[in-house]
Please model this.
Amino acid sequence: MTLKRFAPYLFVATLFTMLAIPLVVTQRRLSWASVDELGCHYVTIRQFQGQWPHLDLRDYPSPETPLYHVTLAAISQLNDNIITLRLASFAMSLAALLVIEAYLLRRAQSTMAVFFTMLVEVSPYFLGAAVRLLTDNLALGAAVAALFALDDAFDLNVCRSATGALFGTVAVLTRQVYLWTAPVQFVATFTHRQVSHSQRLVNAALSTVPALALASFVLLWHGFTPISWIGWSNNAALSVNVNVPIFILSLLGVLGTVFIFTMCRVWRSGECRLIYAILLATIGMLILVVHPFTIDEGGWLLAVGRSMPKLLGTRLPFWILLPLGLVYLYILLARQLMSGSYLVIIAWVLWMLMNGVSGRIFQRYYEPMLLVFVAYVLTPWDFKSRKEWLMPCVYLVGCLGQDVMIFYWSH
Model:
């Protein structure tokens, strides 16, 4: 019985290890992963290693909060080898992956949970961050763990509130963009039912911990990044980059189409109305008329867009994907609202808004977390027929092909 219980975790961990470890130990440069590793994170770790234990956190070569770098600098005191550091970073990614799987399996004991976890692990944007010194997966895993603890589908108690605050703080101290975990925990104070007044006060108080942790660095830096990085993005103005939600919703247009047959079942169960779907699709096209999407920085979807002609300033695929993404968002939110669990919806919105603070758009910033949000709603819906399996399996194989092309084959 115990072996059967842990079999899904063992399967996912084995597949991930087989895919990642050869990349961890290779000295080959791996596209964007090596650029960020050697240009920002490894040099920051080495700087902290040289300053140990009296670290200068006021300025260093990475634009992110320093928990990841400090942790690896501590490990480097025992073994000063980049492969050892990569193995430690890989262990963080594996832990994040297992947290995601545990969260989804708690939603439903089904093959869907394992399948969605596989989609996350074979995403080149999760795999790339797992095999080089990158902060992405530690922050992602901590944020998902915080959501797991605070989910209003489960009971809320002091232990869960403290766990949510702890992992929210880990996420924020790894990447400041995860500050959205703090208001999510505060809102959880009110979305949970049948919670005592004292427990609500405790949860509301603990929700300030991630924000206070970041506030100490804001005071130290006089901004949201280390001193030499101030002005690197549009964070000084704290404005929302509209291109970010446009791209996220376009990516949702891809993922929703991959699961189109399951989406159709969710549509019927959620009592969605065709008139609302048409209205949202029309709004999507009007958005592109008013604000053409011209970004082409990094990621396979943006690369596909670059190969296509423009219409009114926007690449053709986005004229289709943004309206589709809004329709799929409507389906997912309608279903989640019917379940009576609202916190994940609030987290989704706050995640998009907080990511909109950045002036740079790279697919790796959004794809893994978006997969988690989609999986959260769809996991309870087992595939009922071969046609429901077909497109997701093709997409999974396509992601594996990208991994081979980007990391194993391309130089």
The longest strand covers residues 310-311. The chain has a mean pLDDT of 91. The two ends are 46 Å apart (CA to CA). The chain has 19 helices and two strands.
